[in-house]
Amino acid sequence: MRHRSVAAVGRQACAVLLAAAAAGCAREPAPPVSGYHLVERDRYQALYDARGRILRLLQDEDGDGRAEAQVLYWPNGLPRQGELDTDRDGRVDRWEVFGTDGKLERIGTATDGAPAPRVWDHVDAAGRVTWREPAR
Questions:
Q1: pTM score of the predicted model
Q2: Is 62 a member of any domain?
């Protein structure tokens, strides 16, 4: 399977959700619960707060009912954290952490089905790994 980044998932989901809204064919949002709005379209599910700010985005790429990607957002609408199941075994094996400016800061990876990252790679503005540390 090709690697998908949180940014790629977010861009693709936004395009699908915006196109559906423009065409008027998006599934009707679920009734608000305490001011939250859930919108589902194709393989995506987006949760918005009462002000219309995105809080969480899920992607079920293969349609098996389990999300392969979850993106959490800062209040400014930029990604805060991503959790990816890159090998589609039902467990998160890649974590991406973003600063409040939306720039990727570090990537955690798990091996052998571990429930948490074994290592964290810290990246520079170009996405190059600058240093690696074992997870604590």
A1: 0.75
A2: yes
